[in-house]
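Sharing in case it's useful to others searching the archive later.

Someone asked me privately for the predicted structure of 50S ribosomal protein L11 methyltransferase, so I'm posting the question and my answer publicly. Question first, with the sequence:
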Amino acid sequence: MRSPAALAELEREIAAPGAGLDRLRLTETPFVPEVRLHLAEDAIVWWARMEADAGHTLPPPYWASAWPGGQALARHLLDHPGLTAGRRVLDLAAGSGLVAIAAALAGAERVVANDIDPYAVAAVTVNARANRVAVDVTAGDLLDSRVQADLLLAGDVLYSPEMVARVLPFLRRAAADGVEVLIGDPGRGHVPAEGMEVVASYPVPTTEPFVESPVRRVQVLRPH
Ligand SMILES: C[S@@+](CC[C@H](N)C(=O)[O-])C[C@H]1O[C@@H](n2cnc3c(N)ncnc32)[C@H](O)[C@@H]1O
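And my answer, the predicted structure tokens:
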């Protein structure tokens, strides 16, 4: 699946959403109500229907949920517009585009959102449109390249040991090159405390299944 085909598919889904748990719905982000996103009523049910329709497996629709790490980072950007104003921003592993959209709303000069999932690239496009902001999208894996931006944002990207092994060196290299790097991390237990400054901490309402606490404590981190 390429990004234009994924975009056409999401546009069809949005135009005729249906009424079940397998629909997309334009909704306020709980911790960032300034941003509205097309999210799945239930991402697992949406995924199951899309796979059944396609007749083959599809990547997990991470873009169809607003992850706590992204919500905290987006909140931080909107509450501290000096971080983004007039700067070139890259949102790595953008998912729905929440963080990228918050950066655009906070006055960034240019925002690029990157993700390897074509559906995420499409979701950023429809979500940027819904919030009337300009966000450029780029598909593909940037983790072996150098960052062309002033501010690099990574919301809920360090969610597995495999991701940490690839993403953390990329973030550290960018920081060493003089790029400001901010990470939104809900404490999934994979991020070493060493070499990380805690910039802020937010109580983000829980939207994930199987998490019983009503809020999740999320840190905004800066590698140094
Ligand atoms: C948990 S989601 C977080 C999405 C978003 N940043 C947020 O906070 O809502 C992780 C995202 O990482 C993306 N991803 C995984 N590996 C990647 C890579 N090598 N480069 C870019 N994105 C990647 C996935 O496709 C997924 O959209």
